[in-house]
Amino acid sequence: MTYDKTPPLKRPERLRSLDAIRGFDMFWIISGEEIFHGLADVVQQRYHLYRNPTNWQLSLTDQVPFFQRLMVHLSNQLHHSVWNGFTFYDLIFPLFIFIAGIAMPFAYARRPEASGALTPLDKRRIYTRLLKRTLLLIILGTVVNGALQFNGYENTRFASVLGRIGLSCFFAAIIHLNFGTKGKIGWLAGLLLGYWALMTLVPVPGHGSGVLTPEGNLASYIDQHYLPGKLHRKIFDPEGLLGIIPATASALLGVLTGVFLSMQRPDLTGKKKLLTLIAAGAGLLVAGLLWGQLFPINKTLWTSSFVLYAGGWSILLFALFYGIIDVAGFSKWSQPFAWIGMNSILIYLMAHGMVDLLASSKFFLGGMIKDLDPIWHRPILWTGVLLIQLWLLRILYERKIFLKL
Predict the structure, then answer these.
(1) Which of 66, 91, 207, 340 could form a disulfide bond with 216, CB atoms 3.0-4.6 angstroms apart?
(2) 377-398 and 33-47 helices, crossing angle to 10°
(3) Helix, strand, or coil here: 235?
(4) How far apart are CA 258 and CA 80, in angstroms?
């Protein structure tokens, strides 16, 4: 098997929209969600809205004006679905993996070995880099989980967001490097159908087959018996072992999108690519909804229908950025997102324990807001966090300092 080599006419240029949408994706989890939750808290207290303690959703009333209603809607979308279902917050993780997949064909096309078949030495070098990157992401993921405060093996969580990103992208890269487009599509279908078959046909001791409850599904059973350390949700882990299979499919959707975008034929203009992306995204949404009638859309289980549905939204959202930035040429507005996107792993680590930027925001803004109603403190302080993050990331961007894994 050889490298997928339908060589473009020239090396594909870097997609500016890719950095921007990666930054947009990261924005919500580094400070955006706290800003909008804070604004929704203001609306809740002002209009005495009820918050459902099960899913954290705020219930709107007719007395709430449009702008305040919008804040509440955004806040409600920034919570994960309790089990089955889909919110914008459920999209953030698979969107990041999808974006990483898009980047692969462009990244490998810029390497010298992309011009022909991979030699055994080429493969060894690439696989070594991939393995090192994956292991580093797994280690960093455990650090984010608090591994440095070691409280014993049984209290250490080894599964993580970064670990799943590393593993799913590792397997997707192996497939990309060894199979052509038809082979990639075959792998995508096989992973989705195989995962569906495992989750619905394999019996779980004490529950039987096809049980997709938190305690009765196969993924939870495997996590309970084979995942080292502690589980994030006691009886299952949302970044558990079996979910690596469909997460790899999410990455492959991105790879196939990247392969399509990297094609450079005279008849395949940016506008035609954009229209194709929109059609593909809409088709995946419909396919995900239909499959969801049999295999529910569920982010925690990362069901096959979730892969398609989240993939559809990922393609449509990317198409929006691609159309505005790369096709229409309007890119200046997206520069702050590019600052975030070019150092996405670094800012993720900073936002999850490496640096207490909230304390810095309190230091700079605490005196200014002390006389304001306390309900405004949360959105103002987290806006301060965002400004500090952007200031730091802009400095790194201008000095071309990027954390590359």
Answers:
(1) 207
(2) 160
(3) coil
(4) 28
Per-residue model confidence (pLDDT) at position 1: 41
Q: How many CA atoms lie within 13 A of 26 on its CB side?
A: 30
Statement: residue 395 has pLDDT above 80: yes
Q: For residue 313, what are the contacts with CB-CB under 8 A and spacing of at least 6?
A: 91, 95, 281, 285
Instruction: Give the pLDDT confidence score for residue 150 in this predicted structure.
Output: 78
Per residue in 80-125, pLDDT (tens digit) is 999 999 999 999 999 999 999 999 999 988 664 454 566 778 888 9
At 119-129, the pLDDT tens digits run 778 888 999 99
Contact indicator for 264, 8 with CB cutoff of 8 Å: yes
Task: Specify the DSSP class assigned to residue 153.
Answer: G
Tokens describing residue 327: 């096709």
Q: What is the length of the chain?
A: 405
Cβ-contact 282, 199 below 8 angstroms: no
CA 351 vs. chain centroid, Å, equals 16
Q: Dihedral of the CA atoms 178, 181, 183, 188 (nearest 10)? A: 110
Give the whole-angstrom CA distance, residue 254 versus residue 317. 13
Tokens 């490998």 found at: 108
Written in H, E and C, the secondary structure of 19-30 is HHHHHHHHHHHH
How high is the pLDDT of residue 111? Answer: 61
Crossing angle between the packed helical segments 88-109 and 244-262, to the nearest 10 degrees: 50
**What's the token pair of residue 354?**
């490496």
Nearest to 242 by CA among 182, 206, 183, 200: 200
CB–CB of 136/25 below 8 Å?
no
DSSP per-residue codes, 337-351: HHHHHHTHHHHHHII
Contact 379, 78 (CB under 8 A): no
Distance from C-alpha of 65 to C-alpha of 121, rounded to nearest angstrom: 64
Answer positive or negative: Cα dihedral of 371, 374, 376, 378: positive
pLDDT for residue 269 is more than 60: yes
| Distance from C-alpha of 228 to C-alpha of 157, rounded to nearest angstrom | 8
Per-residue model confidence (pLDDT) at position 388: 97
State residue 116's pLDDT score. 53
CB 212 within 8 A of CB 199: yes
Mean pLDDT across the chain, nearest whole number?
Answer: 93
User: Between the CA of residue 226 and those of 1, 140, 150, 220, 364, what are the distances in Å?
Assistant: 33, 21, 21, 10, 47
